[in-house]
Structure formats: C-alpha cells, structure tokens
Write a structure and sequence with these properties.
- With about 300 residues, the chain is mostly helical.
- The protein has a single domain (about 1-310), classed as Up-down Bundle (A middle domain of Talin 1), CATH 1.20.1420.30.
- It contains 12 helices and 4 strands.
- Strands 1-4 form a two-stranded antiparallel ribbon. A two-stranded antiparallel ribbon has the order 2-3.
- The two termini are about 25 Å apart.
C-alpha cells in the first residue's frame, strides 16, 4: 500500500510540475509581449515581468500551503527555490555559456537579493512570521519594485499591435495563470502526502521536491534568454525571482496567515545568505559568470540538498 501511495504521489507531483512549468512559460511569454508593447526595456522585463512571472508557481504554492496550514512547505518552498535559482539554475545556465550582465544589475539588484535574504533571515530567526513582520517584508518588496520601475521604464509603446493580437495574448495570460493555480493545488497536497509516507518532514519536502518543481520555469526562461545572448534577462530573472520570493511571496503569505516554521529554517537561511553573496560576487567580477564559475554554484546547491535529505 505504501509503495502504491508513494507512486501515486510522485505522479501527482510530476503532473503538478508540468502544469506549473507550462503555466509559467505561457504567462511569461504573454506578459513579456504585453510589456514590450508598452515600451518596457529588456532589463525591466527580466527583473519584473519574467522574474516575477516565473515566480508565480512559488507564489501559488506558498500561499496555498499557508492557507491550508502547511507553513513548513510554504516557507521551505521559498527558501529552497532561492537556493535552486541562485545555485543550480544560475550555475547550470553559466555552464551552457558565460552569462554577461550590466553593472546596474549587479549593483542594485544583486544588493537587493542579499539585503532581502538578511531581512527574511532576521524575520524567521525566531521561527515565526507575524503579520507585522510580513507587512515589513511586503512593504520592502513594493519599495524595490517601485525603484526598478521609476528608474528603468523609459521606453515608448510599440506600434503595430492589433486588438486581435492583444486579445490572444490576454487569453494566453489567463490560461497560464489557471494552469499555475491547478499545479499549485496538486503540488501542495501530493507533497504533504509524500512527506508522511516516506518519513521526511514537510520542511524537507518543501525545500527540495516542491522547490525544484516550482523553480522549473526560472530554469527554462533563464536558459532560453542566456542562449539568445540576453544575459541581463537571464540573470535578472533569477535575481528578480529571488527578491520576489523572499519579500513578496513570503510577505503576502504571512499577511494572510501568521507562520510558524521548523528549526531547520534558521540554518537554511544562513546557508542561503552565503550562496546569495557568492552568486553576487561572481556576477560582479568580470561582468558576469563564466563556465568555470558556474561549477561552485551548482556544487553548493547540490550539497545543500544532500545535507537536507541526509
């Protein structure tokens, strides 16, 4: 019976990953198309539209988990997704080809990632997230978003877009969002069942299996951008997603339901801070990350997973 239950939960997790991946890509594609028609730059699209769009799976899963009382899955998903994004994804993308970025991206948005990790670590250090603390996180996120928009949105709206094309893009946006919501519901339920059956805690499942599944859109989007020579979009997607996860997603989840998390959260956030600092330092040296520099990022994130599961 246990084997059948595990097999079923694994199938549901796989189905959830597919739904989240498909929904994330459809949402990002349509949102990026709409943003370009409004004259938004590639840097802003990478940081906001793509970065926040590919974080919608984390957003949906974390909020769903928080509402149904699965705080460890909610917070573990956020922390694990950032480890996945800044370690495995950024490192793997660099292994396919060096990622070149602008100084603005590193100076402003790299600093924002480190600062948001420190802030989230301080908030979670007592293993609780109150509504007041969650409000502080979310206010910091809105301030960061406003700073990016004010400084970067300077383009002119693109001409030539027909109403029919805009309508199709809007419909794709809705389909992508619906797929994300469906995948989130499947992911939370099956991941919680899987944790009970195989003897892992909900924190461990949230920080590994769920985090990897919800981060798949970031991997696909960043790899596609890097291979097309859009380093700022590739790295901006991961940096923007990381800020969005820690401040926006965790903040909104805590505003809805105060959270209590496992003691492992404190250690994981310290590990995440070290990984964030390493990623930003590598991005700052030489204007990006080379193939050889991608190796330590991948190794650190894999080591974190091994430590969690062992």
């Amino acid at each position: 019976m246990a084997v059948a239950a595990v097999a079923l939960d694994l199938l549901l997790v796989a189905a959830a990953v597919v739904a989240l991946w498909y929904g994330g890509l459809r949402f990002v594609e349509s949102a990026s198309a709409l943003a370009r028609r409004l004259g938004v730059s590639d840097l802003v699209i990478g940081l906001t539209v793509v970065g926040f769009g590919t974080s919608l799976p984390e957003f949906a899963v974390t909020l769903d988990a928080a509402v149904v009382g699965r705080a460890d899955i909610a917070v573990g998903n956020v922390v694990g997704s950032n480890v996945f994004n800044l370690g495995l994804v950024l490192g793997a993308v660099a292994l396919f080809g060096s990622v070149t970025v602008s100084r603005t991206l590193v100076r402003r948005d790299g600093s924002a990632v480190v600062a948001s990790t420190v802030l989230a670590g301080l908030v979670c250090w007592d293993l609780t997230v109150t509504r007041l603390e969650a409000g502080l996180l979310f206010a910091a996120f809105l301030s960061y978003l406003l700073l990016v928009v004010i400084r970067e949105v300077q383009g002119e709206p693109a001409a030539g877009a027909t109403e029919a094309a805009t309508l199709r893009t809007g419909l794709t946006l809705v389909v992508g969002l619906a797929s994300i919501v469906l995948g989130a519901n499947l992911m939370v339920g099956s991941a919680a069942d899987l944790a009970r059956v195989v003897g892992l805690s909900e924190w461990e499942i949230g920080e590994t299996v769920v985090a990897a599944g919800t981060s798949s859109p970031e991997f696909v989007a960043s790899l596609a951008a890097a291979r097309r020579g859009f380093g700022d979009v590739a790295a901006g997607n991961l940096l923007g997603s990381s800020v969005f996860n820690l401040l926006g997603v965790l903040g909104l989840a805590g505003l809805l339901v105060p959270l209590s998390v496992a003691p492992a959260a404190a250690t994981s956030l310290v590990w995440l801070l070290g990984l964030s600092a390493l990623a930003v330092v590598l991005l700052a040296t030489g204007g990006g990350i080379s193939r050889i520099e991608g190796v330590p990022l991948v190794l650190v994130s894999v080591a974190k997973w091994v430590v969690d599961l062992v």
